[in-house]
Structure formats: C-alpha cells, structure tokens
Amino acid sequence: MVINEDVVRRRLSEGQPCHGVWSLLPGVVSAEVLARTGPDFVVVDLQHGAATEAELPGVAAAIRAAGSVPLVRTRSPQFADVGRPLDLGAGGVIVPNVRDAEHAREVVAATRYAPAGGRSIGRLSGGADQPLVIVMVETRTALDDLDAIVRVEGLDGIYVGPGDLSLSLGLAGANRSADLRQVLSSIIARAVSAGMPVGVHAYDGDDAARHAAEGATIVTVAVDSVSLGKVVTHHLDITRGRQETGYA
C-alpha cells in the first residue's frame, strides 16, 4: 500500500498506529536514508533541527520517493511558519507551542484554503490540499485546556513534548520522572477516550513501545542524531574492548 496523508489520517482515525522517525540532521541523503528504513512518516524538525526551509522541496520529495510521508515540525505556531512548509512539500505539520484550543483552531485554519481557513494559495512543490495537522501539548496552559483541544475540528492528532512540558509543570529532573510519567499516561488516556490520536515524543524504541502500549498511535521510534550517536558509540566500544583484551 502506498503511504500518503490520507492513509495516515485514516489509520489514525481508526485507532491504528503509525510509526515514524524524527530528523534533526540536514540534507536530502539523510532524509532518504531514514525514509528507506520503512517508517510511515519522517518528521523534519525546523524548530530544533539543522534543516532549512530551502532544503524542504528536495527533502520532502526524497522522503516521498522512499515511501514515507514527509511531516515538518514548524519553527513556531505563527501563521507564516505553519503555511510555508506546506508550500514547500510537507504533507503535514506538527506545530509547537500551542497555548490552548482557540490557538489550535487558528493553527488548523492556517493549513486550510478558504472558505475553510486562511491558508494563502502559492504552493511551490508537492504538499497536499488537506495536510495532516498535529499540535503539540507542551505547556501548562495547553494541558489545562486539553479536553477542549482534543475536540478541535480538523485536528488530526496531538503530540506531547515531554521535555518542555516537564519544565512548564516544574517536573524536570530525574527525581520527578515518575510524576511526569503519570502526567503523560493521563494525557494519553484522555486523548484516547476522546477519540483523538496522540503521540509522545520518544528517542528510542523502548520509550516508544511503552507509550504505544498505553494507547499512543503517533509513534516516534527514533531520532536520527541520537540513534547515530548510540550506534557509533556501540561499535567504538566493541572495537576498543577487543583491542584491549587482544581479542580479534
């Protein structure tokens, strides 16, 4: 089956999981390598990653050609920052720093052409008429308004940013990790109960599997820069250990 925005939207709406990888590294080759591993989607991170908007047409095309849906975490929730990646080939957006339900409605409107929204006509490359729209829950205000956010029409999912949420709630640090896990579990449960697809950002398969077991269906299984560092460290440790013991 060809994976596209409509397939991902349908699967999520039916409660089926979609698995993706997160890209902080720039370049078409990096994006293609990630997409060829077989994820349903690849997220290009413009907020914290090294990729630029100028790269998006090529990066998005490479992801699609390899069989995945190109999503973009936007630089901000501002109107222009939401619309521009969609004009440059993204099949959907994951929008950070959303304050509340009214803000989420503004984000949805920025992804839809009139009369459904205010998106400006001018798509340059690829993209979609009905892109996927996911907003991030990573602030106290968004958490306080969660029950309203999950009812926003046109929203395809919510995505929790545990790092920023922990800071906003005063739960940062290893000694508060259990409290944060309870919050994350509660968000997943509330979203699932409301029929809203939900994901929690994860850096490896173990964390991703734990969130999925609780009901998350937007499942990020790896972050490219983190995975690369772990793999290289692993192989360095193996080689150095064998050299030190004289084993070959």
From TrEMBL:
InterPro entries: Aldolase/citrate-lyase_domain, HpcH-HpaI_aldolase, Pyrv/PenolPyrv_kinase-like_dom, Pyrv_kinase-like_dom_sf. SUPFAM superfamilies: Phosphoenolpyruvate/pyruvate domain. Residues 21-227 form the HpcH/HpaI aldolase/citrate lyase domain. Keywords: Lyase, Metal-binding. One of its GO terms (molecular function) is lyase activity. Pfam families: HpcH_HpaI. Belongs to the HpcH/HpaI aldolase family. This is Aldolase/citrate lyase family protein. It comes from Nocardioides renjunii.
